[in-house]
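Each letter names a residue; the fold follows as tokens. Both lines appear below:
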Amino acid sequence: MERAFLKHYIKSQGLRQSSRRDRIVETFFKVKGHTTAEELLGQVRKKDKLVGLTTVYRTLKLLTQCGLAVERKFDRKGASFEPAQAGEHHDHLICLECGTILEFENKNIESLQEAVAREHGFIISRHILELYGTCQECSGKTRKNSKKK
């Protein structure tokens, strides 16, 4: 489904189809979770050593423009990308120690956001919830290190 849509989008933008772009797209949709352009390049180069970072960035930009990918910053220097899932929504827990990103869904949070918007006569078109802190593994390390002192 994504491939047919992307092929049509590429044609509508006057761009040409390329095997390198196809390899990047294929790899992107196989990667689970969030990936940076550099991480994606590392994966793509396992199959094609000649793919460059610029081509990966352009392909991710194309995927984002046509709605097949979502760009996230997560308080980092660079962006992360994840496949867009039509009709699905999730939020994120981001560890400030190791960079782990956990996705979660919570109907209570969604309901509360809708209620707050209604109270203020606000119509939500989209939202992003990112919670920053320390993951279970890193907080365990922190506790162990503080006990040693």
About this structure: The beta strands are 69-72, 80-83, 91-95, 101-104, 130-133. Residues 53-65 form the longest helix (13 residues).
